[in-house]
Each structure stands twice: as C-alpha cells, then as structure tokens.
Design goal:
alpha/beta, TIM Barrel, 8-stranded parallel barrel, two-stranded antiparallel sheet, 15 strands, 30% helix, globular, binds flavin mononucleotide
Length: 371
C-alpha cells in the first residue's frame, strides 16, 4: 500500500509516530571528549521533538570503534547517564527516539580511540586522511579482525542496544552504511577475507545479519532498525555488485521482524531501490537524494512525497532537520526553510550552528513547547 500523506500518524514497532518524517542520524561532534552526551545535545534534540521519529547520531559500542574526536559513544555508565538526559529532554518535549549504533572499522585512528589500532575486515587502509584532535592525519593500516574480534564486536552491539533501551531510547538502528565497519564487510574492495565473513555475497552480508540478529535478540526485533547505503561511495567504498548484494541482504533478513530497514540515497528510479522495496515486507525508511550545496526551497517535501509514492513508509531527512528545528511544521505549511549555515559548523563543538537555528515565530497566543 502506498501512503499519500507525510503528516498522518503511523505505527512503528511499539511507537505511534505523529507523522512520517524521521530525523536522519547526524554526527555533530558535540559530545565530551570521552563520548559522553552533553546537555547541549539534549537541548538540540528536544528542539526537534516534533519529528515523527528522531534517530540520534552514531554512537560507538566500544572504544575501538570510535571514528572521530568528540563523537558520541555508549559503552560506559557515564555515556548511558548522558544519553538518559537526552531521552528525558526529548520525552518531555513530546518526542520519540532511536539511537544509531556505529562501529567505525577502518574509519578511525589510534589518536581517536585511546591508542587502539582500528579493526577492519581486511588490512586495507582508508584512502583519505582522517580528523584527529591534532588535525588531519594519514590513515593507519587497520588490523584484520579475528573471529574473537568479530564475536566480541557482535556482543558489544547487543550490549550497547540494551544500554540504549535502559537509557530511554525506544530502539536502536544498526549502522551498516556509509563506509563504516559493517559496510566494509559488505563491499568487495574492503573485504578480502577468505573465511565465512568474506568471499561471495553470502559471506560479506554475514556480519550485518549477525549484528542485526544479536541486537534484535537483546532488545526485540520491533525495536531494531538497520541502515544501508547501496552504491554510496563514502569513506572509500566501492561495491561491484550492488544490485545483487542488497536484495540478498533483504532476503537474509526476511522473517527477522526488524522494525525497519533504512535506505540512504534512496532514488525511486534506481533498480536497487525498487528491488529492496519489493523484497522487504516491513517498514521502509527512505532518505532521499537532495542537492548537496543548497536545500530545496520546499525543504525536501517534493522528494519525500515522490518516495512515498514509490512505496516508502517513512522519510528520513538530515540537513533539513539540522537547520530547521520545526521542520515538520514548515513542510506542512509551506513556510520557507532555513539553509544550513557554514558547513564547517556541522562538526565542531558549541551552540553556534547547532542549537541557534530559529524556529518560526509562534502564532499569537501560542507558546512553543521547546522555547
Ligand atoms: C553533519 C552530518 C552528520 C552525519 N552523520 C551521520 C551519522 O552519524 N550516521 C549516518 O548514518 N549518517 C550520517 N549522516 C548522513 C545523513 O544521515 C543523511 O543520510 C545525509 O545527510 C543525506 O540526507 P540529507 O540530504 O537530508 O541531509 C550525516 C550527515 C550530515 C550532514
């Protein structure tokens, strides 16, 4: 069944969402140096509580998986307490939240992960420099994961998921997109393994399926989502079998009962998108392809509606939510949208370019709940 309105309530696992708009996960580097979420993050997410669902930024499930400085984590009690302040603030503002769990794999550096060498399917370095506290540095050759490393990583995803639910999240999203660890296992150019986790498609999808299953076993499949990015070349990824790889992954997930599958760079004209939609019987979140230099004047509404017409159930938007705390209201009413100011502010600390994007003025007699 295709949906026609972005602005109608819908069910997602145990939740009722007030609309079909999802805030895409966005790393904003506003956590403390040890990965603990800050009160500033609580304020930022609470401002955006009218999203049907917020998927909070990537949080690493262990120290080795850390990507960049000041990114969020969830593997200590301090991290959990910080996230609890975030979920409390969003809940008080009327919102609903999942948390994305991400292991960076080769997208990391010993200076960002307490001296640990990044882990990856194969010892193939990132083909670009990486941000560290002392500036951009050459990538290091990652260490090929042993079966013990793999088992421990799967367990860390499950433990982080349990911690997330205990900290007030409605569920978690497993990050198997954009060139991070699980995507490195999916893609042939980063996975040269000859064991059960490499080689043909059945081997390369194995870790993503195992992590999704372990997380689902820990917190319930109805609280577990999975993000994929077919053909996205971020972080040096080059897939050579996209059109076979993702339908095989979808087949392997059939019967898993996951809350949703989330597709980055979703283009209704691409065969892989249509194949995923045809094969996946559950909820599909689609993140449309918007221009990189400037947000469309309608904030992405037309692109979102095209994807609904192509069978998506929920639409994820990133930068439109980043720049517009009240995006849902602006899309609904056709009000103009704020553009992203100064892209460099995306990944630096502090409130500028973070919590200072203005909401529309409240109509006379009404007060904004997050004012
Ligand atoms: C500042 C920023 C941080 C991002 N961080 C993440 C992240 O932590 N996890 C993830 O899966 N995608 C991340 N992305 C990708 C977004 O979720 C989204 O897929 C992308 O921005 C395209 O959507 P948009 O055109 O609506 O912004 C990030 C994007 C931006 C702009």
């Amino acid at each position: 069944m295709t949906h026609t309105s972005l602005f109608e309530p819908t069910a997602l696992g145990p939740l009722t969402l007030p609309n079909r708009l999802v805030m895409a996960p966005m790393t904003r580097n506003r956590a403390a140096a040890d990965g603990t979420p800050t009160d500033l993050m609580a304020e930022y997410y609470a401002q955006r509580a009218t999203a049907g669902l917020i998927i909070a930024e990537a949080a690493t499930p262990n120290a080795a998986g850390r990507t960049y400085p000041d990114t969020a984590a969830l593997h200590t009690d301090a991290h959990a307490a910080g996230w609890r302040r975030v979920t409390d603030a969003v809940g008080a503002a009327g919102g609903r939240m999942f948390l994305q769990i991400q292991h960076g794999g080769r997208v990391g550096h010993p200076d960002n992960s307490g001296g640990r060498t990044p882990l990856a399917p194969s010892p193939v370095p990132l083909p670009e420099t990486i941000h560290t506290p002392t500036g951009r540095q050459a990538p290091v050759v990652p260490r090929e994961m042993t079966h013990d490393d793999i088992r421990a990583t799967v367990a860390d995803f499950a433990t982080a998921a349990r911690r997330a639910v205990d900290a007030g999240f409605a569920g978690v999203e497993v990050h198997s997109a954009n060139g991070y660890l699980l995507h490195q296992f999916l893609a042939g150019n980063t996975n040269h393994r000859a064991d059960a986790y490499g080689g043909g498609i059945a081997g390369r999808i194995r870790l993503t399926v195992e992590v999704a299953a372990a997380v689902a076993a820990a917190i319930g499949p109805e609280r577990t989502g999975l993000r994929i990015s077919p053909a996205v070349t971020a972080n040096g990824i080059a897939e050579d079998d996209t059109d076979a790889l993702y339908p095989a992954l979808v087949d392997a997930l059939a019967g898993s009962g996951l809350a949703y599958l989330h597709v980055v760079h979703a283009d209704p004209d691409r065969p892989v998108f249509r194949a995923i939609r045809a094969g996946w019987r559950g909820t599909l979140i689609a993140n449309p392809v918007l221009p990189l230099d400037r947000l469309p004047a309608d904030g992405g509404r037309a692109a979102a509606e095209r994807l609904l017409a192509a069978g998506a159930d929920l639409i994820a938007l990133g930068r439109p939510f980043l720049a517009n705390p009240d995006l849902v209201e602006r899309l609904r009413t056709g009000a103009p949208v704020n553009q992203v100011r100064d892209a460099y502010l995306m990944y630096v600390g502090g409130p500028t370019g973070y919590t200072d994007y203005p909401a529309l003025p409240a109509p006379a007699g009404e007060r904004l709940s997050y004012a």
